[in-house]
Write a structure and sequence with these properties.
The structure holds 2 protein chains of 2 kinds. Chain A is an alpha+beta fold. Chain A has helices at 6-13, 61-74, 79-84, 87-94, 100-118; strands at 26-31, 38-46, 49-56. Chain A contains 5 helices and 3 strands; from the N terminus they run αβββαααα. Chain A has a 3-stranded antiparallel beta sheet. In chain A, strand 2 (38-46) and strand 3 (49-56) form a beta hairpin. In chain A, helix 2 (61-74) packs across helix 5 (100-118). Chain B contains 14 helices and 15 strands. Chain B has helices at 4-9, 36-48, 59-78, 93-105, 126-135, 155-158, 181-191, 210-213, 238-243, 278-294, 296-315, 344-353, 366-371, 388-405, and strands at 24-25, 87-90, 113-117, 138-142, 163-169, 194-198, 217-221, 232-236, 254-257, 262-264, 320-322, 334-339, 356-357, 359-361, 377-381. In chain B, the strands form 4 sheets. Chain B has a 7-stranded mixed beta sheet, with helices on both faces. In chain B, strand 5 (163-169), helix 7 (181-191) and strand 6 (194-198) form a beta-alpha-beta unit. In chain B, helix 2 runs antiparallel to helix 10 and helix 4 (93-105) packs parallel to helix 5 (126-135). In chain B, 49% of the residues are buried. Classes of the chains: A alpha+beta, B alpha/beta. Chain A binds chain B through residues 1-4, 9, 12, 34-37, 58-62, 102, 105, and chain B through 343-346, 349-350, 353, 360-362, 366, 369, 375-376, 404-405.
């Protein structure tokens, strides 16, 4: 297993969709109870589509890089589709094998994103 | 001096390899690997003379009962309890502490005070919060200094005539600090408060003498000392145990049961309702025999040596911040640290690839982490079977992680 592939490290060091949004449509928060990390995602929605997003929060390489990769995939997609994504989607996006404990780190951003969508 | 190679041969875990090497297992504060003798005795019991204890009159039931009670005798001697009935078997330290917080909670009333330290494991914090919330008692804390030791200077201000219970950890599972509990007990004695010691991390690393300490209760777990899971020990002074209400009720703990009322049996049965972890308790007896064979002097010398070496090696790493005492006095070989620019989970993952097992997270001490402005840290915790080579592999792994993620 090599979790720290170039692609993941790239997203960690140069994250996409990182920061704040001006007047977001909704915000979602998720926390990893085992280490205390938390992640916040703000979204902007137009006609059932995610048109912009931004994440903030402290965390490990995996949680931060996944947030960047996930939002890159999600922006432009329909909300219905995003709401249907599960852990398999994250595994497919990351293209690495992850044990159950670290999977929690990777799933943090999906939790935050889907909880933002629920608040719309 | 301890022959560590010989010790490692007593733990079958080290037979397996990762990348051609046995594991550098440095997560012993969470749980330890198991002795071959423990596994053998449990297996043998299940295969040849397993039966429920304290009931059957047939040979095998009596043999199982005898083996079970033999561990009680061994544990009583191990911590120098004055009699075996003062040893209660629980599920783990957490259950033992919950039992006390629940049952001593009956005697707490609004305005009473319960004193803990700021370095408690959640297991010795949350049950007392619950007891205080139920009764209106007030929770107070002995503070931790910036040097990661307890500040015992103003003890008489914290432990006062209002204090009913003082429950403190002997050795911190995060800082490695071993507290001068004698001073805390002395102050508690002055005001007539009960004293409970959380010995989960200290009992495996230093001799414990409950009579000399004069504590009222002590809790620890078998699985942190090379024994099986599912076995905890609650020591209590006979008089106190006899006067306390039970925590769990049901089978075995009774004297007379009627449809409407029940009277309690004698200790220790009163606190051991239901079928216990029979094979596990019997297996735990082998741990005590092992300690008696190796001898504390050898264990203390080995772990002191390992502490000195680890402190020197770890503190030489650039960007490493140790979350615990920097000197090797009054501490156990538990090293919690953060590394600038490296998240604990990432470090633990990279160390895993190198066959180095450490723990990442808040280690069940969220308030303590918050106090020092930390979220997640990495912890390497050593015990009897660890070597300087394990520490070298940890240090090399940290440097590799810094290279990959720096």
């Amino acid at each position: 297993m090599d979790l720290y592939q170039a692609n993941i490290l790239d997203h960690y060091k140069h994250p996409h969709y990182h920061g704040k949004l001006v007047r977001p449509s909704a915000e979602g928060l998720a926390a990893n109870l085992s280490c205390g990390d938390s992640l916040q995602i703000a979204i902007k929605v137009n006609k059932d589509k995610l048109v912009d997003a931004a994440f903030q929060g402290e965390g490990c390489v995996l949680s931060q890089a996944t947030a960047s990769i996930l939002l890159t995939e999600a922006v432009g997609k329909e909300l219905k589709e995003i709401a249907s994504w599960d852990k398999q989607k994250i595994i497919d996006l990351l293209k690495v094998q992850i044990g159950p404990t670290r999977l929690q780190c990777a799933l943090l951003s999906l939790d935050a994103l889907q909880s933002a969508i629920k608040k719309l | 001096m301890l022959n560590v190679e010989k010790i490692r041969a007593d733990f079958p875990f080290f037979l397996q390899k990762k990348n051609g090497q046995s594991w550098a297992f440095l997560d012993n504060a969470a749980s330890t690997q198991k002795l071959e003798a423990v596994l053998h005795v449990m297996d043998n019991l299940y295969r040849t003379h397993f039966a429920n204890i304290h009931r059957g009159v047939y040979d095998i039931a009596e043999a199982a009962t005898q083996d079970f009670e033999e561990t009680r005798n061994l544990v009583a001697k191990f911590i120098n309890a004055s009699q075996p009935e003062e040893i209660i078997f629980t599920k783990n330290t957490t259950e033992a502490l919950n039992a006390l917080a629940y049952t001593l909670g009956f005697n707490l009333k609004a305005g009473d005070e319960v004193v803990l330290s700021e370095m408690e494991h959640h297991a010795n914090l949350v049950p007392w919060q619950q007891a205080c919330q139920r009764t209106g008692a007030i929770l107070k804390f002995i503070p931790v200094t910036p040097e990661f030791r307890l500040n015992l200077n103003n003890l008489d201000k914290i432990i006062s005539s209002k204090t009913k219970v003082v429950s403190v950890v002997v050795t911190s599972n995060v800082l490695g600090t071993t507290n001068k509990v004698e001073l805390i007990i002395a102050q508690a004695r002055k005001v007539g408060a009960l004293v409970i010691l959380d010995g989960a991390q200290s009992v495996p690393h230093q001799p414990t003498d409950v009579q000399k300490l004069d504590c009222d209760f002590l809790a620890f777990s078998a699985h942190k000392i090379y024994g099986p899971t599912g076995v905890g020990v609650l020591y209590g002074k006979r008089k106190l145990l006899e006067n306390l209400s039970p925590f769990l009720t049901g089978g075995h703990m009774i004297d007379t049961v009627e449809y409407q009322n029940t009277t309690w049996g004698p200790i220790p049965a009163k606190f051991e309702a239901g079928t216990p972890a029979i094979a596990e308790v019997v297996g735990f007896g082998e741990v005590i025999k092992y300690f008696n064979k190796i001898g504390w002097q050898n264990i203390l010398a080995h772990e002191f040596d390992l502490t000195n070496y680890s402190l020197k090696k770890l503190q030489a790493i650039k960007g490493l911040k140790l979350f615990g005492p920097r000197d090797s006095q009054h501490r156990c070989p538990v090293f919690t640290f953060s590394i600038e620019g490296l998240h604990a989970h990432d470090l633990a993952s990279i160390l895993n690839d190198e066959g180095v097992a450490v723990r990442a997270g808040h280690h069940c001490t969220q308030p303590l982490h918050r106090k020092f402005g930390l979220i997640a840290t990495t912890r390497a915790s050593c015990t009897i079977y660890n070597t300087k080579d394990d520490i070298n592999r940890l240090v090399d792994g940290i440097k590799k992680a810094q290279k990959i993620l720096g």
